[in-house]
Amino acid sequence: MFKILVIEDDSTLFHEIKERLSQWSYEVKGIEDFGLVLQEFTEHKPELVIIDIQLPKFDGFHWCRLIRSHSNVPIIFLSSRDHPTDMVMSMQLGADDFIQKPFHFEVLVAKIQAILRRVYNYSTENNVQLKTWNGAAVDYEKNTVTNEAGTIELTKNEIFILKLLIKEKNKIVSREKLMESLWDDKRFISDNTLTVNVNRLRKRLEEIGLGSFIQTKVGQGYTAKEETAL
């Protein structure tokens, strides 16, 4: 049974989310003290976090930043705010998805299922978990990329995108294929969200000199270039 931590101060909405998700056999926990969110997160050890932006004391961005500094647990934002910068900020902080209120519970459940399948099942596939790419060791299980310049740790979304691109190295992977692979059904994810995730991946790779190997093919998709050894 997957444990989900819901960081939502609207008690009516929280209990509705808890009731609906319990029907899908998820164990749902809430927050008792909104000044101690990180402490309660550590105590509950959830497999997924759902968090609102507008919260008492500190907003959801603050807690997302703190949670992400300690864990790569999947994070979904829920918010009634509809400004595009809120979604961009969420993705830049390492969130896996963003759902605007009001929402259909069927969409929330579909997104949760897709993320949990991707995060907790793909690493058990019968394939190689350590890949060499442009002189770097890419560990799909530990979510790290290591070369002589150092080691970076990626989010689940970032490592999954990199894995898909490396699998088709030197070939163009369409945006549609990436969205379908990441979220199972592209109707549930915006085109802008994919752009933010890829840009964040490229920025992280730049820290160890690999950012230029993820190339954008305008109007087509993305390519993971690999140098051919002489």
UniProtKB/TrEMBL annotation:
Give the signal peptide as a residue range, or say none if absent: none
| Any single biological process term in GO | regulation of DNA-templated transcription
Q: Where is the OmpR/PhoB-type domain?
A: 128-226
Q: Which InterPro entries match?
A: CheY-like_superfamily, OmpR/PhoB-type_DNA-bd, Sig_transdc_resp-reg_C-effctor, Sig_transdc_resp-reg_receiver, WalR-like, WH-like_DNA-bd_sf
Keywords (A to Z) from UniProt: Cytoplasm, DNA-binding, Phosphoprotein, Transcription, Transcription regulation, Two-component regulatory system
DNA-binding region residues: the ranges are 128-226
Which is an annotated GO molecular function term of this record? Answer: phosphorelay response regulator activity
Any single Gene Ontology cellular-component annotation: protein-DNA complex
Q: For the modification 4-aspartylphosphate, which residues carry it?
A: D52
Q: Pfam families, from UniProt?
A: Response_reg (PF00072), Trans_reg_C (PF00486)
Gene3D superfamilies in alphabetical order: 3.40.50.2300, Winged helix-like DNA-binding domain superfamily/Winged helix DNA-binding domain
Report the residue ranges that make up the Response regulatory domain in this protein: 3-116
Compartment annotation: Cytoplasm
Read off the PANTHER family from this record: REGULATOR OF RPOS (PTHR48111), SENSORY TRANSDUCTION PROTEIN BCER (PTHR48111:SF27)
This chain belongs to the protein called: DNA-binding response regulator
* Native source organism of the sequence: Bacillus salacetis
